[in-house]
Design goal:
The protein is an alpha/beta fold. It has a six-stranded parallel β-sheet with strand order 3-2-1-6-7-8, with helices on both faces. The longest helix is centred in the middle third of the chain and has 14 residues. It is globular, with a radius of gyration of 16 Å. β2, α3 and β3 form a beta-alpha-beta unit. It has a single domain, classed as 5'-nuclease (Rossmann fold). Helices cover 35% and strands 21% of the residues.
């Protein structure tokens, strides 16, 4: 692969959105890995310079241990944090508080720009706070491309206008499309409980 691709995934945001879905569809992480590779134009996770997930974690929770182990087995780099180590966003339109990894993802985007300008950075998040990070990175280097992947129906409404004005550097992919893909051979559904 001749382009540098990085993927940063807020796994806690994904869990929160899946938990709030009316049909509570399970997310198949083998299929997610393949979906993100396809969306980024890669043939597999091996084509990524970095494929990193961030999640809330308790070593005492065996289900969370299994979840992290399974993702690492798929080739993901996983960063785990206790609830007291990450941001808590209060969204008055939501029924519950949400934890997000905005600061860590922002720092990683910045370090990618400082080390070597990547061709593409895929971000899996619904946090609107990441828009300013993407806009600033694009101002620093107008060759950078962002791929924003998330469930369209779980996006902050402000993303609509932001995506319209940033079509030249942010491409949005609706994660709901993952459920339209054919089944993956030897796919496992990995579930996590917080």
């Amino acid at each position: 692969m001749n382009k540098n691709i990085n993927c940063l995934v807020d796994l806690t945001a994904l869990y929160d959105s899946r938990k709030r879905q009316h049909n509570r569809k399970k997310l198949d992480y083998v299929k997610l890995t393949n979906f993100l590779s396809l969306a980024a134009g890669a043939s597999s996770i091996a084509d990524f310079s970095d494929f990193r997930g961030y999640t809330i974690f308790s070593a005492k929770n065996q289900e969370q241990n299994d979840f992290v182990t399974n993702l690492r087995g798929l080739g993901w780099k996983i960063e785990t944090y206790g609830q007291n180590e990450i941001e808590l966003l209060e969204n008055l339109e939501m029924t519950s508080s949400e934890y997000r990894f905005n600061s860590l993802m922002s720092l990683e985007v910045g370090s990618l720009l400082n080390d070597e300008v990547p061709s593409q950075i895929a971000l899996v998040t619904n946090s609107f706070d990441m828009y300013n990070v993407m806009e600033s990175a694009h101002e620093k280097d107008d060759q950078i491309e962002f791929l924003l992947v998330y469930f369209k129906d779980h996006m902050d409404p402000r993303w609509g206008n932001a995506l319209d004005k940033s079509k030249n550097f942010i491409r949005f992919v609706d994660l709901n499309d993952i459920y339209r893909l054919p089944a993956v051979v030897k796919s496992e559904t990995v579930e996590m409980t917080l």
